Amino acid sequence: MKAGKPDLFIFLVVLFLLTLGVVMVTSASFPRALSATGGADPFSFGKKQLFFTLLSLVIMVFMINFDYHRFRRFTVLFAVLTPVLLVLVLFLGNEINGARRWFDFKIFNFQPSEFAKLALIFVLAHYLTEIGAEVRSFSTGILVPLIYVGLICGLVMMEPDLGTTIVIFVIFLTMLFAAGVRISHLFLVALFVAPVGVYLIIQEPYRLQRLFTFIDPMQDPQGSGWQILQSLMALGSGGIIGLGLGRSRQKFFYLPEPHNDYIFSIIGEELGLLGTMLVLVLFLCLAWRGYKIALATKDHYGSLLAVGITSWLVIQALINIAVVTATIPATGITLPFLSYGGSSLGITMMAVGILLNISRDPRESL
């Protein structure tokens, strides 16, 4: 059967987010670019982000035309390569701010945990498709994949990276739910994971401090509360329509990582409530269309891939936005399509290309 056209709605949503990302990274990184280049090039980060964006679009177009079923041949490779890379980065990775999450290849940094998200989606989609009705068995449908996901999450936590760990585990839960596991089994998993999460928080003093800071950032406004207070100040000063593009004040070394983890705050400051609401609406539209594709396709493997990819992108965006708005404690996670970064954007756009490829499946009807 001849493949249909990719979903135009998702393509336009992603294209708009990418364009906004290049513009906002250029604006948010302006002071840091001046500092890093000795005043020579205030647009250096923006140029790099534009290059990353164009390259990622090429990757997306390639994936749109690459039959996603072929990835099933590489399931074992993905399953083995993921923990291997996560182990290697702990010993050979570049340490930044006390965390080992990246391989430094000089031209670009590669973050294995970003690859792990997509690889895990491939592995789970294949496994859950293969076991079929056995997914309702606790040992087959829950325990076996939980052991593997637990290994991946454990390695990511050793970097340490709590935010990515949460995203990976939510991907796991949503794919299990979509595959038809018993709800009671999911509740058992939640009961098991909850005390583990509490232990991980109280085990590390800095995580416990983040929790106390979340409850009352004013207890240490010049220290642990500085980051979130500056974020809220940026969002609040933007008002309804914002201060205007390029006119952020918090990006001038008040707000840490304004072009990365906290780019949503700069959007709020420069484009106002209207700008932040637009971003939220775009991600909600992505969720609506992505899950619609998952429901429409008759291919179980493709459906699970669509669920996993959509859940990953939307949940990560919601976590990032929740952090910068002080809705949840800080976790340190990027905003898909908008935050600065090369390898993460490339893998994200690879995932979008696969989602668009699934939408071309002639067995589906949107």
TrEMBL record:
Protein name as catalogued: Probable peptidoglycan glycosyltransferase FtsW
Keyword Translocase found: no
Chain's role: Peptidoglycan polymerase that is essential for cell division.
Assigned keywords, A-Z: Cell cycle, Cell division, Cell membrane, Cell shape, Cell wall biogenesis/degradation, Glycosyltransferase, Membrane, Peptidoglycan synthesis, Transferase, Transmembrane, Transmembrane helix
Classification via PANTHER family: CELL CYCLE PROTEIN, PEPTIDOGLYCAN GLYCOSYLTRANSFERASE FTSW-RELATED
NCBIfam families reported in the protein's UniProt record: ftsW
Reactions this protein catalyses: [GlcNAc-(1->4)-Mur2Ac(oyl-L-Ala-gamma-D-Glu-L-Lys-D-Ala-D-Ala)](n)-di-trans,octa-cis-undecaprenyl diphosphate + beta-D-GlcNAc-(1->4)-Mur2Ac(oyl-L-Ala-gamma-D-Glu-L-Lys-D-Ala-D-Ala)-di-trans,octa-cis-undecaprenyl diphosphate = [GlcNAc-(1->4)-Mur2Ac(oyl-L-Ala-gamma-D-Glu-L-Lys-D-Ala-D-Ala)](n+1)-di-trans,octa-cis-undecaprenyl diphosphate + di-trans,octa-cis-undecaprenyl diphosphate + H(+)
Pfam families xrefs: FTSW_RODA_SPOVE
EC class (word): transferase
EC numbers for this chain: 2.4.99.28
Gene Ontology CC: cell division site; plasma membrane
Cellular compartments annotated: Cell membrane
InterPro entries: FtsW, FtsW/RodA
UniProt GO MF annotations: lipid-linked peptidoglycan transporter activity; peptidoglycan glycosyltransferase activity
Top-level taxonomic group: Bacteria
Membrane topology: Multi-pass membrane protein
Lipid biosynthesis recorded as keyword: no
Family to which this protein belongs: Belongs to the SEDS family. FtsW subfamily.
GO biological process: cell division; cell wall organization; peptidoglycan biosynthetic process; regulation of cell shape
Involved pathway(s): Cell wall biogenesis; peptidoglycan biosynthesis
Chain ranges passing through the membrane: 51-68, 75-93, 113-129, 141-158, 164-181, 186-206, 226-245, 271-291, 303-325, 337-358
Organism, as annotated: Capillibacterium thermochitinicola
Main location, first listed in the record: membrane
